[in-house]
Amino acid sequence: MLPYVLLGLVLVFVIVVLMKTVRIVPQARAGVVERFGKYKQTLPAGLNVVVPFIDRVRYLIDLREQVVSFPPQPVITEDNLVVSIDTVIYFQVTDPVAATYEIANYIQAVEQLTMTTLRNIVGGMDLEDTLTSREEINGGLRGVLDEATGKWGIRVNRVEIKGIDPPPSIKDAMEKQMRADRDKRALVLQAEGQRQSAILTAEGNKQSAILNAEGERESQILRAQADREAAILRAQGEGQAIQTVFQAIHDGRPDQSLLAYQYLQMMPKIAEGDANKLWIVPSEIGKALEGLGSTMSELTGIPQDASPVKRVDMGPSEPQLPRSSAESAHAAAADAIAEAKGLAQQPPVAPTSGAPEATSSQAPADPVDGDEGPRLQ
Q: Which residues form the signal peptide (predicted)?
């Protein structure tokens, strides 16, 4: 029985010795070995053999990059305003021995160093700079922490500020200021829009007025040209009508009997009209009848000489419209009218036939309702 007990004790001792001799270190870890309380070596990741009951793995250090978030810290700015700032630090242990023996708790040390450094940096800034200078604050914190933690075997990779919270009263004031700035910008944009609208409207009215004036000017010019051409055409038409009548009179060679007959035909027209209640027969009507009766047998008024009559030059049948200028048009019209009047005032051609010439006597006719009666020749 006793040998079995001894064998069992030996097996247990061997197992314990093996457990104390073989140490397995996980990946990205480092084991700090002490012999009799003094640093002996650093065990890398993997299977390691130590002296049992003499060597002891005191610390197992994590070599990975670690993230530590610190709670919000009250910080006073240069303009005596208290803001709460919470930070995040990314660091990594580069020397396990220094991290073990140079500092008791490197995480707490980094937190306190971050707090003091942050107060020093923000204390030299006002609130506006603090809210808008996060990159500057992050750079300052990283430089100070990296320099201070180098001897601790720690490398600070990044420092980030999670949030900067001013007091509630400052938040309200900032919100009011932002709202006022937005209202101001809105009013400025609205006024700018109204100004642009007024400018564009004025430009449109200006262009419209210019176009209307140009259209009115062109229409007046066209109306004036039309009136000028119409006046020229009317004057030329009147001149040609006068020339035609005058030529017809000369071609017919009228005598006294024809004129007396025409005078008698005009008598009923003189009596026409609602206002004519009293009609006075002129004294020349007896003489006109005598001349008409004495010459009726000879067909008075018909020329007996069939010889060709020299005709008056009537000018072009179509009216010629000058297109040079308004002065030449008016001058041409005036010349045509003067020529027609001059031809009308020439004495009639004496008849060549043997028809007797009736003596004419001129006597004023009695007025009929204010109108002057015709005269016989």
A: none
Q: Which residues contact 15 (CB under 8 A, 6 or more apart)?
A: none
Ordered alpha helix ranges (H), 253-317: 256-271, 285-294
Own/partner contacts of 23-29, CB < 8 Å, gap of 24 or more, are 23/47, 23/48, 23/49, 23/50, 23/57, 24/48, 25/60, 28/62, 28/63, 28/64, 29/60, 29/61, 29/62, 29/63
Torsion of CA 24, 29, 30, 32, to 10 degrees: -80
**What one-character DSSP code corresponds to residue 150?**
G
250 within 8 A of 309, measured Cβ to Cβ: yes
Residues in the chain: 377
Closest CA to 260 of 286, 238, 237, 236: 286
* Maximal CA-CA distance, the chain: 205
> CB burial class (10 A; 0-12, 13-18, 19+) of residue 174?
middle
CA dist 24 and 17 (Å) reads 15
Phi, psi of 102 (to 5 degrees): -90, -25
